[in-house]
Automatic annotation (TrEMBL):
Name used for this protein in its record: LacI family DNA-binding transcriptional regulator
GO molecular function: DNA binding
Gene3D superfamilies for this protein: 3.40.50.2300, lambda repressor-like DNA-binding domains
Boundaries of every HTH lacI-type domain copy: 2-56
Superkingdom field: Bacteria
Keywords for the protein's UniProt record, in alphabetical order: DNA-binding, Transcription, Transcription regulation
CDD domains: HTH_LacI, PBP1_SalR
Amino acid sequence: MTTIYDVSKLAGVSAKTVSRVLNEPDRVKAATREQVQAAMKALDYSPNASARQLRLGGFSSIGLLLEDPASGYQSRFHQALLTACMEAGKYMTVELFEGVMPDWKARVDRFLTEGRVRDLILLPTLCDFAPLKELLRERGARAVLIAPSVHDPHFPSVVMDDRAAARQIIEYLFSLGHTRIGHITGHPDHSASILRRSGVIEAYDARGLPRPKSELFASGDFMFKKGIEAAETLLSLPEPPTAIFAANDETAAAVAMVAHRRGLSIPGDLSVVGFDDAPIASAVWPQLTTIAQPYLEMARKVVHLVDAWDQQSTQSGFVSTYLTPHELVIRESSGPVSKA
């Protein structure tokens, strides 16, 4: 089954441009439109087949279940998925998911049936929620997992290397002269929390330095309020850290607030580094050094997997893990260790 991505590659344009040729041809230059149409013809690409399927009652959109739409991570991923769907000429149906509710199974079943959803995207922590994945298999639904803790033989997954990213942060702080580094961890049940903490320890081991004492680790649960408590704990130590790496940007922003309240200069007295490159990372002062997750690249991979599912599901190795790169974004919140 030829996909919109195959057409874009042959035509030498973006998938978004192909989508515009299909849906808004008047907005595309004639030369580009002809180039795309020639690629469609060469690949025997027939977008009308999907339209006919919808008229006959087929599946109309990709489903997304959100536990916390207000969180920086989920909101950024939601936006990236919307962009990827728009580029591919697809639509997204979103539902709030609260697993603690006694009728969650019935709600998911209605979401699949009334929303005409067969393909879903599961973000953390739902990607590790076994009862939900079992229900999806029973219902014949398909899912792509984002950053699951372990490989699931039933579903493909798209991940980034949290361990390597955390290690890169610590090595960067080493290069600035910091060795007494505090770490605010995420939720203990999240695989990303475990991997990021492991990356911290690996960086010390690789440098041949003693591992950080337990007093330099504080739990933040990926929450701003908990981040404030964790920052107060770390900065109240008899010998406080000269840098703090928080497991996400919300808790890093909490560190910055506590530091300002204590009269500390960032980065003069304390360097602060976050993770995710959520909107808050560039909204606080000073702006946060952080790891930028490749949201859009991951989202495009997810949509591509959904688009090519029918073709590849019969091929060995389809249920695989796909690794996407990250980037260390250096901003004003990090600097050399104070000589005072």
